[in-house]
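dumping this here before i forget
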Amino acid sequence: MDARSVFIRSVLGQLDEYTVASVRPHKKVFLMELNGLSSKVDAEKYRGAEIFIRKAALTREKDEFFWYELLGVGVYLETGAYLGCVTQIIPTGSNDIYVVKKGEKETLVPATHEVVKGIDLEKREMIISPIKGLLDLSNEV
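structure:
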């Protein structure tokens, strides 16, 4: 991420922009110092707030995707059979899990290179090769 400024929407709906002075990891979170927000009292009004950045500030490596890019992507087996579309992404300790829905049927797909063989954002398609036990193909497609 290359954000030089952030937008913070307070729980009351007020949206303010701040310049980022520094960011550092701390335990399982990041601590962010913002210019113009210098005291605990000032920062307290943003407890529970949402933080936004400009989309242009987002950067990623090859074969990395942002969640917003994957939601709604169609998921297909290597055979071409349609499995459904990604409706939700669940973070876990080791890898994300894609929730793929087709009608009422829901399939949990691990986001690993072993399973996900390709993602084409232009075509809005994900190709998977299910590992043993992932799908009951007689009922799945």
